[in-house]
Input
Amino acid sequence: MRRLSRTTRIAGTLAFLFAFQESAFAYIGPGAGFAFLGSFLIILATFFLAFATILAYPFRLLIRLLVHRKSKTKSHVDRVVIVGLDGMDPRLARRFMDEGLMPHFTKLAQQGRFSPLATAHPSMSPSAWSSFTTGVDSSKHNIFDFITRDPCTYLPQLSSADIRQAKKVLPLGKYRIPLEKPSIRLLRKSKPFWKILGEHKIFSTIQRVPITFPPEKFNGVLLSAMCVPDLRGSQGEFTYYSSKLSGDQPDVGGVQVQVQVQGDKVETHLDGPDNSMVANGGKMKLPMTITIDRANNEALLEIDGQKVPLKPRTYTPWVSFRFKAMPGVKVNGIARFYVNSLAPDFEMYVTPIQIDPEKPALPISHPFIYAIYLAKKHGPYATLGLAEDTWALNERVIDEPAFLEQAYLIQEEREKMLFDALETTKKGLITTVFDTTDRIQHMFFRYLDPDHPANAGKDIEKYKNTIADLYANMDKMLARIQEKIGPRDLLIVMSDHGFSQFQRGVNLNSWLRDEGYLYLKDESRRTSDDWFENVDWSRTKAFALGLTGMFINRKGREAQGIVAEGEELETLKAELVEKLSNMKDSGREGASVMRRVFDTVKHMPGPYASNAPDLLIGYQEGYRHSWECATGQVTDEVISDNTKSWSGDHCIDPDLVPGVIFSSQGFQSENPHIMDLAPTALSLFGVDVPKYMQGKRLFEGSPFSPPSKPAPTKPAATPQKVEVS
Output
């Protein structure tokens, strides 16, 4: 009955939405601008479709119950609850458990199992969570990085989604009315295990698992995560207002707006998405006025008919507003405002403008109304895939306290979603992923190493316990989760990878230049800007982009490829593997930079290996692709210190950064892998595991039966170089 009441509430929300809808659906794609998802005719048709859906619901429910009764599998559990703590590290977990900071995790390990969890290759969130979702490696699910190169242009493109603008439009004067939906296609291949469960009538609630955008249809509800864009179409573009900006001010990313304080007022605007409904429409803008009350050290923001109090160094609640595309068509967004300073200079940070979950500009959930249901019940929440603004802290637009406050506000939102799922999903699968563990470790890992280059000139004491506090906070959340776990529920807490210090950045494009594999058009220069601006492709044999590896400039694949398939390609790859494997860091007394370098198709020979970098780089701890290498720059130096706040990382040899797995019941596997979660969940619900899955079941039969071998009370021995230090 609870599932019925939940669906009834969602249906009611849908009726409310369409009865009072003011905005058209829209899609904002990375680099694709703003494209409406429907014309007025489509909106009208959608209204009648929603109405018919509500009327038909009782009949559909009856059919579902009858089919469910016939198709019921022999389940070993009532529920499988998987809590993903992105980036939780086994070494740090063991350390903080031993120090008494994680008593509930310690008890969970004693009652069930705690072990390192081998991660995917490459060891980064998009590929690892995709392996979790599908039970296969990257060469079979097609996700190797956040970005890849467009072989036609050598420019970056999102790895997980393909976005195409609507082609059919109706011109009405200066307006352009789209008559069809834009194409939004998920590029991750293979099938999510919850979709297989759904085919056997097992319901799932999936919240914020990375690489689930755009959402796929299945028997359950899903809220998308990583790679959901902001309202401007980027993966997270903040706005920074300052009265002290000048022409000499360094570029800090985001949108920088210079303002003037005239008396007690600041008159400015907030940029929205491009207006594709107007020929050469440019960006939509919202006027803003900030009135400063110096006597009380506060201010008042006026935007879109609203008045929002501003207090220095305090986030506002989510503020909703509408950009007007044309008469009768508005696009909704939300943002938080944070004043760094009112005087003597005015400085204000605005988070990336999120898609408003109450009136989504594009489908960010399945069904579409699930995002709306969560917002109506629990209030507005961050929808951006990478919601914690690490880059704003990296560029010192905000400081550590502001970042931590933002991260924990998002954590609080996610907890409400999880506990809603625990309350309403009484049978089936629940999976919720939390990003806080990953984002805070990225930005505060330097505090675990006083000699980290990023510590130069910065505080190393005030936040030295931030990561310990983070793990302790996760322990407190675990205690609340365990209160909701029933006797036939299996609880798994896991992470996609661990963490390592990121001290030195390696620019493989600069190394390729020095070794004679990459050439610049102007031979008098040694450097090239972002996206290979000055690279001579007619002579370049290899290049690097993103965070995972190196591409060969292959004939027939890249637009200006020069390396022939066959013997020439294989000889070049072998040559590069040998040279890269022997790379030394002269700045660190000849320290070895690489642990292993992989020929991708030999290491992972799946059907999508040809889409990957031709060589995957397994760095030693302390090293990673440099920031410039990731964006296709060629710099003067090959290896340089990483001095940014983003001081911890995991884009290294995967054996060095396993994740964690905690289970409320012991299991037999000595070396669990992230690919094992999909077949394990299927088998727990009595569903046959597809033969193509590479993972293995962690349980044989019921998890509540005594294991065939005693389950260890401490984690299995960690791989070499993964001990707690």
Q: What stands out?
A: The chain has 17 helices and 38 strands. Residues 80-143+188-227+385-499+665-725 form a domain with the Alkaline Phosphatase, subunit A fold (CATH 3.40.720.10). The CA atoms of residues 500 and 649 lie 5 Å apart.
